[in-house]
Amino acid sequence: MARRTKKTAGFAPAGPTPSGSKPAANPGPMDAAGRAAAIDGYLADYARLDTLRFITCGSVDDGKSTLIGRLLWDSKALFDDQVSALKSDSKRLGTQGGAIDYALLVDGLSAEREQGITIDVAYRFFSTERRRFIVADTPGHEQYTRNMATGASTAEVAIILVDAKQGVLSQTKRHSFIASLMGIRHVVLAVNKMDLVGHSREVFDRIVDDYRHVSARLAFASVTPIPLSALNGDNVMIRSGTMPWYRGPTLLAYLESVEVRGTEDVRPLRLPVQWVNRPNSQFRGFCGMVASGHVTPGQEVRVLPAGVTAVVKEVLVGDLAVTGAPADTSVTVTLDREVDASRGDMIVTADSPCEVADQFEAEVVWMDAQPGHVGRGYLLRAASGSANATITDIRGRINMATLDEVPTRQLELNDIGTVKVSLDHDLPFDPYSSCHETGSFVLIDRFTNATVGAGMIRHALRRAKNIHRQALSVDRASRELLNGHHARCAWLTGLSGSGKSTIANRVEQFLHARGIRTYLLDGDNVRHGLNRDLGFTDADRVENIRRVAEVARLMVDAGLVVLTSFISPFRAEREMARRLFAPGEFVEVFVDVPLDVAESRDPKGLYRKARKGEIPNFTGINSPYERPEHPELHLHGDAISLDESAARVIASLGFGS
Q1: Which helix (H) or strand (E) holds 642?
Q2: What are the φ/ψ torsions at residue 249 (nearest 5 degrees)?
């Protein structure tokens, strides 16, 4: 194993103290027992150190990676092979004219080294006599904002770098806003590259004043400005003689002394259940990591969302029974009585429970190239479980130039917006400002399994609790009995010109002749009334299908056979429509014809106009059509007759041919 570049005396913790005191002199050779005792003592001292997680962020080329590299170098947290590789890489790449380029310690991707930028979040670990540190180097480019949000989600302190020559930029505001949004309360305003402005106090004071106007609108508890030169090490670990006018702490001294904890144990207990351990009939334990508070035997708790209460009988860490466990501890708890709890439930303090709701308002950082639309459904995953989720409203997005909220109908990649989310069942949660662990969530695309958004819950939508389903004496079964047939929805989808409307019309003719009560919802007809206010943007198309699906559901509840004829180009919206119906009630019919066949038919001349650029967002030409993957019925509209197509649809609805 490579040897540390620093010399240790009796395994003393790494790095000098903030005052610059030197390590004790080497006491000389030790016998085996002495070495073992020294090792044990060092490990015990090291285990008692607390850990601070912080991020570096800012605009492009502000020196984030260089600063972290300098911290690692000055704190002697490098092995000999790392030092050799750094010197070799610095000489080979020549980014600092042969001198050491500290950024290479962090920028590990070849694209980062070639372009001199940070792309992905890089984590590094180091320690001093006072603390252990986990530092995340986050990207500065706007297109990697989602990566920065990822790094900020677990940090307690943010070092926001500003280039002394550039001053406060748009990305400075963006990253400050995200840091505040993610609950970071302590910020270092690191005014870097002071050597390039002659170590000017006037430049430093001007930047600090500019940033004060930014931070005044954010929820920071403290902002500590520090002038420094990461490349030269000025005020990083050792106080700079080039800026005698600065009397504040060095960066490392600040990181060693800043107090960021103290609320975890006084917060109410939050224990998301991750697994129910029942090896035999004599034992039933609820396993999970304590998100906040403290769990102890004899404590009265409540299991949400059911709301039942019990008393903690035993707390286990591994196989060992303990007298209590604080936040961030993985535990198994047993209760004094049987309760119906499973993965996704939450064990909380009985007299200070969290909220339970199926609708809430949240801030979302959008992380996907595909925009987020009102009405589109996703899978939501949170500490308390998962649920089917729909964005029901987008109140606006943040304009990073002004930090004001501006109206929008969709969220683009790296946007930060305020949304309303509706779930298909209740979930327990806390506002993110009260507990990050139980107030955060991610949105996942059902088809790609990609994480499309990271959210922070603001509050429940109370009005949802004032709405209850009215019990009706005449139900759907009664209506079906009166009609003499079951109700279904046939959802015909395909390109314009595929023959959807023609087939749906023939199906309705056949069913009507047999005395079956039907209704045909056609795309063009609906846009003359119900959806006349909608255009053909992606957001409007999503809303168009959402409304039609809700109407179709009501008509099926009325006992009718509903036929819909819509291009409905997006899988997500067709899946949303399907989820409104019980199994077997929804029949997806894919009317499949090649594009050239559909275009040759062109009964309304739409393809010709789209080819000329007169119709934007026309499906198949300049807007995509996402083919159904598993439709109940796949019709090749160019290969079978109209009557045969209609007969197959009728059979799929359960009425025979």
Answers
A1: helix 642-652
A2: -75, 155
Q: Which CATH architecture has domain 355-462?
A: Beta Barrel (2.40)
From the candidates 90, 434, 568, 645, which is the catalytic residue? 568
**Paired tokens of 577:** 């429509």
- pLDDT value of residue 285: 94
- What sign has the CA pseudo-torsion 200, 204, 205, 209? positive
What's the pLDDT tens digit per position in 449-504?
Answer: 999 999 999 999 875 455 656 677 888 889 999 999 999 999 999 999 899 999 99
- The CATH code of domain 476-652 reads 3.40.50.300
| CA-closest candidate to residue 238, choices 127, 52, 74 | 74
Per-position DSSP letters for 93-120, written without gaps between them: H-TTTTS--GGGGT--SHHHHHHT---S
Cα(256)–Cα(235) distance, rounded to whole angstroms? 14
Domain ranges of the chain: 32-257, 270-349, 355-462, 476-652
State the DSSP H helix or E strand holding residue 423, giving kind and residue range, or none if neither.
strand 416-429
Q: Angle of helix 170-181 relative to helix 201-215, nearest 10 degrees?
A: 50
Alpha helices for 440-594 (secondary structure H): 476-483, 500-513, 523-526, 538-557, 571-579
Helices 642-652, 500-513: inter-axial angle, 10-degree rounding: 70
Active site residue 568: yes
CATH architecture of the region 270-349? Beta Barrel (2.40)
* pTM exceeding 0.90: no
pLDDT band at 60 (very low <50, low <70, confident <90, very high): confident
- The two structure tokens encoding residue 152: 């900020």
Q: Which two tokens stand for residue 95?
A: 């980014």
Residues paired with residue 294 on neighbouring β-strands, in sequence order: 326
Which tokens go with 519? 């209704």
